[in-house]
Amino acid sequence: MISANPSQFEAWNGDNGHRWVASADQRDRVLAPVAEALFAVTAPTPGMCVLDIGCGCGATTLMAALEVGKAGSVFGIDLSQPMLDLARQRATTVGASNSTFVSGDAQTHGFKAGSVDLVISRFGTMFFSDPDAALINIGKAIRPGGRLCLATWQPLTANEWLTVPGAALLRHTDVPAGISNEPGMFAQSDPDVITATFSAAGLVNITIEANKVTLTLGQTVDEAVEYLADSGPGRILLETIPEGPARDAALADVRDALEDHQYPSGVRLDAGIWLITATRND
Ligand SMILES: C[S@@+](CC[C@H](N)C(=O)[O-])C[C@H]1O[C@@H](n2cnc3c(N)ncnc32)[C@H](O)[C@@H]1O
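Above: the input record for the complex with S-adenosylmethionine. Below: its predicted structure, written as tokens.
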């Protein structure tokens, strides 16, 4: 596959993708509140055709497949082969014969024009080298009057689940150059940028709703540390600290910081997301 996003293609077919596959069930448990919040606004109904952008290992695609039922259909698109392989396995396991997983770059993929009632995505639209071109391309797949509903991250400061361990790590290292570079986790965290991109794609009735969810990062502090050490900014910061006593000391500080967030139901911290909805005009 030729991708318009070669570095993302490499990352999600390499380390990133394999890491997500290895911990797919755990990530889906942690991110379940995001899926619930997204589905509360998207509300797919029986018979719909739904497209899931950057579907990864297929959790939200298969949720949509249940909602649309046998009269409907669901397509997940992703550029990560290992993640798509797991998505297909999961679909077979749950008998979701109304789901199809497509290997492609959503920025340039030749979607059938006007074929989709609803586009959804949980954190799969922040990695485009040209977000305007990507949204125009995705928008064309939606039928006139159809909708698009995405979950993206609010800025770092709204995400306690990152700032609490991050502050502990920053006592041991500095923010490496490039951590905030786009495309990436925070590429759709500025409402002005989101509005401009969606408007340029000819989408209307754009709403950007701030939503706070509580993520259970693990049942124990050790599980939560393991999750954070393997995810996004936490991993990038940790990799700047040499393995051995220095890294052990940094991880001990992260553990201490998370102790305050241990509850009987697990280690729980707040996360800020945007729920973006829009309609295709015409
Ligand atoms: C943060 S993961 C989210 C995965 C999934 N939506 C979930 O919530 O579990 C981002 C996903 O977007 C995919 N992705 C990144 N750039 C893409 C592109 N240009 N086209 C299609 N998928 C892309 C990655 O391969 C990855 O699966």
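Notes for the reader.
Residues 6-155+182-214+273-280 form a domain with the Rossmann fold fold (CATH 3.40.50.150).
DSSP finds twelve helices and eight strands in the chain.
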